[in-house]
Write a structure and sequence with these properties.
The complex is a heterotrimer of chains A (321), B (265) and C (270). Chain A is α/β, with parallel strands linked by helices. In chain A, 34% of the residues lie in helices and 31% in strands. The chains are: A alpha/beta (321), B mainly alpha (265), C mainly alpha (270).
């Protein structure tokens, strides 16, 4: 469904060097990326800010033209066949809206129906289905600018799917949402992928999105693909470390517990680092409680940035998947 | 005192940081200057003198006014900064500072005006003098009074803009009064045509209003046709308006501050 | 072609939507209309004041100049009504709205043009019509059917010419971000200068507005025809019929400029 081969994107940036002069510098936002995604897959696309995620997605959706490489989306050549491709894809940008700001939500759907030339009946069916699944009834006639973020995001997802696209590109769809809303969105996406066979490329910073939805994960950093494989595999190799933050009754010297080491102390609070495959959270909690007056604790997972850093640190090359 | 100088410097730098925008603005003014000059040339093909202005006066008028627009800030993006701050409530932090809001904003405005005097008004004027035949006074005294008048025009303009911005304390949308002020300004400051072109009584009335003190007054002095026959009257009017607008601005600010405090903003 | 039908359907809905929204507050809307009309009328004050002092401007009488003003103003107001939102185009590029447009299955220019509609700007149209009526009352036109048709035709052609110039200038936003004020100079300046008899401007400026940026065809040449005036700037008198053709050409050029600019945007990056 999606095929990239040696895709590169070069930008020319003007940098100020002195009061009046500007230097032309070339930035490689994407430095040779290749992967392919088969129809019906739901793949996560992850990486630190500035890694080249948005640039890749912009190329896949026809917004930007690659500097080099071969690109096929749905069998089409995005830069050359932008409009044809646009009919078959749906896009949700987390920070931006595709809805009409001061019109009621229902009006936006109606306008989109005409833009994508969806037959009336099919549009009706889809809209009814999504209204039910996402509980849109309450705010269909509210102007978009008055919607809460969660409501708006549900509207965006509907808008992206109303015309039965084959591929959907989601950019940070759960950003800023509360826990309940996030769960609802994830459920919805899983269902859509399962029932309609929509291919999904999900760009996100939220690892929990990936965990829930994607079996496959692409990690990009500095314009290069540094991981293409399963999430479990990734965790096994690099995501073993977790951090338990314990709040003791009062400040104490660093705890000495088997299976963990203290990496930071701040008054009564201590940070313990432990490996998933060596110690379970339950074991560690028991061990800490036995050795101190434990008031509260929290567990932090490894951030994607941390994983990326670690991949670089161990000098791993992108695995062939 | 030192602080206000710093503020003026900041106002200056805000504009000197965007040379491209300055050039673009200069370009705009030159373009309009040309259009208006040609129109006036056509007008003066039919007559020798209007309201005491001959053709060289009129063309000088057009070029100087285009140049002074930016100095006196008749338009411009800086118009609504304060209004935006009022509406968002950010102004509360400003009011808590030990600096007087009105004076500090004025200081920044002076900095801005200074920059635009050198990089918009003067190039504009020089260009006009080269391309067309315009009046150039040869008495140093007149130049001096001209400079003083420009200096006085700035606080007058500031006074009006300050009050317009403060309207945001009471109105949701500053666009209404702004549009009205802009429209009045267009006509009454002598921007479109010299006020001298207006029939007698309208002319006199217009020159008494503050808008005329922003633009028409300095140019009148330059051209040698100040209201009441001598520069003193024009300058006195300017001073009067500057003070009056300052006081009105102070009252408005006090009222607005009270409202803010009451609302717990 | 089916694409255009889809776009037309969307546009009609959008326009209807906007008008409906305004009509919900009839009093406020009427006030806005009147306010805008009065404010724009002030532009005419300059002309009126000139004619208080002199009988003619470059051999054009007050009625004749009023006709010029009316044609130019109504055309410009119609353009402003339809694509006035182009003022915000640089912002659209900055905040990624344009990317959103590129992801839709419609040509980008058509989307941008049909993105908004501002009913309150109808006030400016009304003002222009008032001056037009005034002009026709003051003038003693030798009316024929052709002449009568020439006026709405000139207005339509004029609006398209203004729109083409505006679109072409707006594409500057793809290349430069800061100097956007220049665009305003040319759009509003252009509208301003087409209100006056072109003959009063310097030769080079005349050439510019006839051959490069065809503003002379918005009001001046059509007015020559309606008035039966013989003042074609030293060019063939037949040009007074050329406005519709010029409008089509201008639109084509604007389209080409736009396509080129978008191509640059897509290569050089968001």
């Amino acid at each position: 469904m999606i095929e990239l081969e040696g895709i590169e994107k070069r930008f020319v940036v003007r940098v100020k060097t002195g009061r009046l002069r500007r230097e032309r510098r070339e930035v490689m936002a994407v430095a040779g990326i290749s992967f392919s995604i088969e129809p019906g897959a739901m793949v996560g696309y992850v990486g630190p800010n500035g890694a080249g995620k948005s640039t890749t997605v912009k190329m896949l959706t026809g917004i930007l033209v690659p500097s080099a490489g071969r690109l096929r989306v749905g069998g089409l050549d995005p830069p050359r066949q932008r409009i044809e491709l646009a009919r078959r894809i749906g896009v949700v940008f987390g920070q931006r809206s595709q809805l009409w700001w001061d019109l009621p939500l229902a009006d936006s759907f109606d306008l989109l129906r005409h833009i994508y030339r969806v037959p009336e009946r099919r549009h009706r069916e889809n809209l009814d289905r999504f209204t039910q699944t996402l509980a849109l009834d309450d705010f269909l006639s509210t102007p978009v600018r008055q919607l809460s973020l969660g409501q708006r995001m549900r509207g965006e997802l509907t808008a992206a799917l109303l015309h039965d696209p084959e591929i959907v590109f989601l950019d940070e769809p759960t950003i800023g949402l509360d826990v309940v809303a996030k769960a609802a969105v994830r459920e919805f996406l899983a269902e859509v992928n399962r029932e309609r066979g929509v291919t999904v490329l999900l760009t996100t910073h939220d690892l929990a999105d990936i965990e829930r939805l994607c079996s496959r994960l692409l990690i990009i950093d500095h314009g290069r693909l540094i991981w293409d494989g399963g999430l479990d595999e990734l965790k096994r190799r690099y995501g073993q470390e977790r951090t338990m933050i314990v709040d003791l009754e009062e400040a104490a010297p660093p705890l000495d517990v088997p299976g963990a080491r203290v990496v930071r102390v701040d008054g009564p609070r201590q940070w313990l680092s432990f490996r998933r495959d060596e110690t379970s959270a339950a074991e560690l909690t028991a061990a800490v409680a036995a050795r101190s007056h434990l008031v509260d604790l929290a567990i932090e997972e490894t951030e994607i940035e941390e994983i990326v850093r670690r991949i670089y640190a161990t000098g791993a090359t992108p695995p062939v998947s | 005192m030192r602080l206000y100088f710093e503020l003026a410097r900041r106002g200056y730098r805000r504009y000197s940081a965007y040379p491209a925008a300055t050039v673009a603005g200069l370009f705009t003014n030159i373009f309009f200057g040309l259009l208006l000059a040609y129109i006036l040339l056509a007008v003066y093909a039919e007559t020798d003198e209007i309201g005491g202005y001959d053709v060289r006066d009129a063309i000088a008028y057009v070029w100087i006014s285009q140049g002074l627009f930016s100095v006196v800030a008749i338009f411009g993006p800086s118009w609504f900064d304060l209004a935006i701050r009022v509406r968002s409530g950010d102004v509360a932090t400003d009011l808590q500072r030990p600096l007087d809001l009105q004076l500090s904003t004025l200081a920044q405005d002076v900095g801005r005006a200074w920059y635009q005097l050198f990089f918009r008004a003067i190039p504009q004027f020089v260009l006009g003098a080269i391309i067309f035949e315009i009046t150039i006074p040869n008495e140093a005294g007149r130049w001096l009074l001209f400079a003083v008048s420009i200096a006085l025009a700035i606080p007058v303009s500031f006074g009006i803009r300050f009050m317009l911005n403060l309207c945001s304390f009471w109105l949701l949308d500053h666009r209404g009064p702004t549009l009205l002020a802009l429209a009045l300004n267009n006509v009454l400051s002598g921007m479109i045509v010299p006020l001298a072109f207006f029939p007698g009584s309208l002319d006199t009335l217009a020159r008494l209003l503050p808008f005329a003190s922003m633009l028409q007054a300095p140019i009148d002095i330059y051209v040698g046709e100040p209201i009441g026959g001598n520069a003193a009257t024009a300058l006195t009017l300017q001073v009067g308006w500057a003070v009056a607008l300052y006081l009105m601005g102070r009252m408005m600010l006090a009222a607005g501050t009270r409202k803010l405090v009451l609302q717990g903003g | 072609m089916a694409d255009l039908r889809a776009l037309a359907a969307v546009y009609v809905r959008l326009v209807a939507s906007r008008i409906r929204a305004h009509l919900e507050y009839p009093v406020s809307f009427s006030l806005q209309l009147v306010g805008t009309a009065l404010l724009t009328l002030i532009d005419f004050v300059a002309i009126a004041v000139i004619f208080v002092n002199v009988p003619e401007l470059g051999e054009w009488t007050v009625g004749e100049v009023a006709l010029l003003y009316a044609l130019a103003t109504i055309s410009f107001a119609l353009t402003d009504l339809a694509i006035g939102h182009l003022d915000l185009f640089p912002q659209m590029i900055r905040d990624g709205t344009f990317d959103q447009i590129l992801v839709r299955p419609l040509p980008s220019l058509l989307q941008v043009v049909t993105m908004d509609f501002a009913p309150r700007r109808i006030g400016k149209v009304i003002q222009g019509v008032v001056v037009l009526v005034l002009a026709l009352v003051l003038l003693d036109v030798d009316w024929t059917v052709a002449r009568a048709l020439a006026i709405p035709l000139a207005i339509a052609a004029g609006a398209i010419i203004y729109a083409s110039v505006w679109v072409a200038l707006a594409t500057i936003a793809f290349w430069i971000v800061d100097a956007i004020e220049v665009v305003n100079a040319f759009t509003y300046g252009g509208s301003f200068l087409s209100q006056y008899p072109i003959g009063i401007f310097a030769r080079w400026l005349q050439g510019l507005v006839v051959f490069v940026v065809p503003l002379a065809f918005v009001a001046y040449f059509p007015a020559l025809y309606v008035l039966g005036k013989d003042d074609a700037l030293g060019l063939p008198q037949a040009l007074s019929f050329a406005s519709p053709l010029v409008a089509v050409l201008a639109a084509l050029v604007a389209g080409a400029v736009w396509r080129n600019a978008v191509r640059h945007y897509r290569s050089a990056g968001g």
